[in-house]
Design brief:
Largest sheet: none
Shape: globular
Strand content: under 5%
Number of strands: 0
Order of helices and strands: HHHHHH
Amino acid sequence: MTETPSDSSYILANDRERERLRALVARLSDAELSVRLNDDWTVAGVLAHVAFWDARALVLTRKLERDEPFTPDDVEPDDVTWINDSVRPLAHAIAPREAARLALRLADETDARIAAMAPSRLWPNDTTSLVKAFRSEHRAEHLDEIEAALRRDHGARKPSSGERS
């Protein structure tokens, strides 16, 4: 459950998950970027998905910085399945290593902008804000999935000579 960020807890949480992302991206081999998490997504595809949602947060953060009001079109639907399904072919069209770099670059930029904002302008402090203070929650969910898939993949095959385990 998300707590109200009256302090810098969201900044620390975002930093923690961003650094976790950074460490993962640094150690992933090209083969690991292509590991399937499920029938629909690869590791690189999920990293591009995370980048997409951070990019959305950046767009909304920039609106706040310009004191531009949110519109009904800015509101995230309750069920984002159709958005994720629409993004999936685009996410997988990005070269896997570039998807990893993009996820990290956008996480860095998003977290910096959110950290610079007054907590009172972010959700959940401002219940009308569309900018969620805790970007860490979405990243953690997908980093957990990626790490589980990599453990499963490594358990299913023996590394060949020269391949990182």
